């Protein structure tokens, strides 16, 4: 049996099979990471660092990866964090939950009424948002 590298016979069934350049993958991951970070910041009402940790927890990636994607994008990204960010972005930003989160942000900006406060609590419960969560720095 002769040794022939895989790329000569077939493409791998990973991200490379999509013929995407590493910079394109990093760019998409950066977009998703920043969107998750900003969603956490606006939903939780916390500082940027705590929002970064929350977004990382949602996606199952390290906070350091989100920081690097935002401020010093790497040259490449592994498949696992890329797919985790993509799935989390699809679930939390593009889905019904994502649209509900946008509604929650808008409701919080309106003047408070008993009915509106009840709706905000229900949406926060549905989205798994902890109301009044204190930041890590304040503790």
Report what the structure shows.
The chain has 139 residues and is mostly helical. The protein has two domains: 18-94, no CATH class; 96-129, no CATH class. 66% of the residues lie in helices and 0% in strands. The protein has seven helices and no strands. Helix 2 packs across helix 3 (48-59) and helix 3 (48-59) crosses helix 4. The longest helix has 23 residues, at 22-44. The termini are far apart. Residues 4-13 and 133-139 have low confidence and may be disordered.
Q: What secondary-structure arrangement, pairings included, does this model have?
A:
Elements: H1 6-9, H2 22-44, H3 48-59, H4 63-71, H5 79-94, H6 96-109, H7 114-127
Helix pairs in contact: 2-3, 2-5, 3-4, 5-6, 6-7
Q: β content, as a range?
A: under 5%
Tally the structural domains.
Answer: 2
Low-confidence stretches: 4-13, 133-139
Sheet with most strands: none
Secondary structural class: mainly alpha
N-to-C order of helices and strands = HHHHHHH
Mean pLDDT: 80
Could you give a short description of this structure?
This protein is mainly α. It is built from seven helices and no strands.
What are its keywords?
0% strand; 7 helices; elongated; disordered C terminus; 66% helix; 2 domains; single chain; 139 residues; mainly alpha
């Amino acid at each position: 049996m002769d040794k022939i590298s895989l790329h000569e016979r077939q493409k791998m069934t990973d991200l490379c099979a999509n013929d995407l350049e590493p910079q394109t993958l990093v760019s998409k991951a950066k977009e998703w990471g920043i969107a998750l970070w900003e969603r956490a910041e606006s939903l939780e009402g916390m500082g940027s660092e705590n929002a970064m940790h929350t977004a990382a927890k949602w996606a199952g990636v390290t906070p350091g990866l989100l920081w690097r994607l935002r401020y010093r994008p790497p040259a490449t990204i592994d498949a696992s964090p890329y797919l985790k960010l993509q799935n989390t972005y699809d679930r939390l930003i593009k889905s019904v939950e994502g649209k509900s989160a946008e509604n929650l942000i808008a409701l919080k900006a309106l003047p408070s009424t008993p009915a509106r406060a009840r709706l905000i609590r229900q949406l926060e419960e549905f989205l798994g948002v902890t109301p009044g969560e204190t930041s890590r720095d304040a503790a």
